[in-house]
Specification:
mainly alpha, Arc Repressor Mutant, subunit A, two-stranded parallel sheet, 9% strand, DNA-binding
Length: 89
DNA sequence: GTTATGACTCCAG
DNA sequence: ACTGGAGCCATAA
């Protein structure tokens, strides 16, 4: 079972209108945040990687701006350019 | 084996 | 609230 597969499983399990932090995934798998980020970066395109954000709710830097649009389309609440963590919890 | 880099997070200013 | 520096861990050269 590759780390990527585990991360993929977690990411696809994220409900619509919800997001997860890299650190959260890392903790869940018992790996460091860097590992989680790296794994997510290697994920397939089938996985909603845009639902994975920074610990403070900031979307990933890659595809800058695209993650935001996708999240909003999914129904994720944004507050001042960042995902509303309160909604996540 | 050593060095550099990153889709990270935390702490301090 | 924003920026910068430090820490962490795996991959690549």
């Amino acid at each position: 079972m590759d780390l990527v597969a585990k991360v993929r499983t977690i990411v696809v399990a994220i409900p619509k209108g919800h997001v997860a932090a890299y650190g959260e995934i890392g903790r869940e798998l018992g790996i460091s945040p860097r590992e989680a980020g790296r794994a997510v970066a290697l994920l397939d395109e089938d996985v909603p990687w845009w639902r994975v954000v920074y610990a403070d709710g900031t979307p990933a830097t890659c595809h800058d701006g695209e993650a935001r649009a996708l999240l909003e389309a999914e129904g994720v609440v944004f507050r001042g350019g960042r995902v509303d963590m309160l909604t996540i919890r």
